[in-house]
Amino acid sequence: MYSNKVRKRRGLTQAAVRHTLRNMSAITIKVNGRTHTLDVDPTTPLLYVLADDLDLRGAKFGCGLGQCGACTVIVKGQSIRSCITPMEAVDGAEITTLEGLGTIQKPHPLQKAFIEEGAAQCGFCLNGVIMTAKAFLDKKPKATDEEIQQALSNVLCRCFTHVRMFRAIKKAGQEMAR
Ligand code: FES
């Protein structure tokens, strides 16, 4: 878990790794239907565990401060920022990541609509947009344009494909409502 590559990516010193190893505890999470029990420092951000331990790279490291949304996953129906969510806060929780939404053969309505509308550009923010939209549409599939814009207002994207994204989200909502 603390290979040199992982240690350097997380910006940890050797001393910090030793401290972490002394504070490990077993935490169980269910991710995309699969249960995992991991020995981790309880303060480790969920995002690190998803990427480094479970090899799930859909959630992205953007700001690392809970501000951009690139790391969004869904816990108990709510979209959350996994970069600032410690593992101890999700012990026993069911988590859905982008990888749990659909497959190439059977994409989720959101994934299908984003492809059809050509709404992806660089793709970095896409995880945050799609996961935030999913949590929102699960509760309100027949949302208005204004409600969709409001729900997505704190997910940052520099690509300027917002119009296409909003169109795709509305289209997906119509399919999810059926
Ligand atoms: Fe988590 Fe930006 S990386 S909110």
Question: Order of strands across the biggest sheet?
Answer: 2-1-5-3-4
Task: Report the top-level CATH class of the largest domain.
Answer: Alpha Beta
- Alpha-beta classification: alpha+beta
* Discrete helix count: 7
What is the N-to-C succession of helices and strands? HHEEHEEEHHHH
Beta content comes to: 5-15%
Give the termini distance in whole angstroms.
Answer: 44 Å
- Average predicted confidence as pLDDT: 93
Name of the CATH superfamily of the largest domain: Beta-grasp domain
- Count of DSSP E strands? 5
Number of domains: 2
**What name does the CATH topology of the largest domain carry?**
Ubiquitin-like (UB roll)
User: If you compute it from the alpha carbons, what radius of gyration comes out, rounded to the nearest whole angstrom?
Assistant: 17 Å
- Give the overall silhouette: elongated
Please estimate the helix content: 25-40%
Query: From the 3D coordinates, which CATH architecture of the largest domain would you assign?
Result: Roll
Poorly predicted segments? none
Q: How is the biggest beta sheet arranged?
A: 5 strands, mixed
Bound ligands: FE2/S2 (inorganic) cluster
